[in-house]
Amino acid sequence: MSGRDYQGYDAVIKSPLPGRDNRLAIVTQDDKLQKLLFVSHSTKLKQAKSSFAKSVVEQLEAYFSESDIKFTLSLGPDGTEYQKRVWNRLRKCPIGKVWTYGELARQIHSAPRAVGNACRRNPIPIVVPCHRVVSANGMGGYAGQTSGMYMSIKQWLLQHESAI
DNA sequence: TTAGGTAGTCTCG
DNA sequence: CGAGACTACCTAA
Known about the structure:
The chain is built from five helices and five strands. It is α+β, with helices and mostly antiparallel strands. Helix 3 crosses helix 4. It has two domains: 55 residues; 80 residues, Winged helix-like DNA-binding domain superfamily/Winged helix DNA-binding domain (Arc Repressor Mutant, subunit A, Orthogonal Bundle). The N terminus is likely disordered. The strands form two sheets. Strands 1-2-3 form a three-stranded antiparallel sheet, covered by helices on one side. It binds a DNA duplex through helix 3, helix 4 and strand 5.
């Protein structure tokens, strides 16, 4: 078990996402959301440990039930300057809208491949909506994969948001 | 369909 | 550091 084990999580909740990794583990630091991880359905659930973690839980649950809520959480992801530039820009992508890697790249004067690299390392999926970035011809990837369970999650999220 | 271009990051040495 | 490899890509031919 490398990195944090589940005891390091500030909360673990159930989600309606498809697949085995349908629980969400929340990691905060100094009242900022630092990571959101897809963890296995066998991971122990955990009550929010702080009032900030509780508001993360509430907003996620609202998102799953209504799909068009806007997250108002301060974020503190670890990453390079460039990665944070990509993630910050991505937060401006409205619900129900989809950008291509190329479109996002033009907005920040970069290149599509580099954008894909940064999205791949997004530590806060859903809240930083990397599922809204697709390729010009296909779906792109999600959570580092281009097929499999995480792509199903990406599709689920897009479908959820288009069904407003 | 593929070749070549792109920007950022990672891995060796 | 430096070269080379590796991407959740894109465009032109």
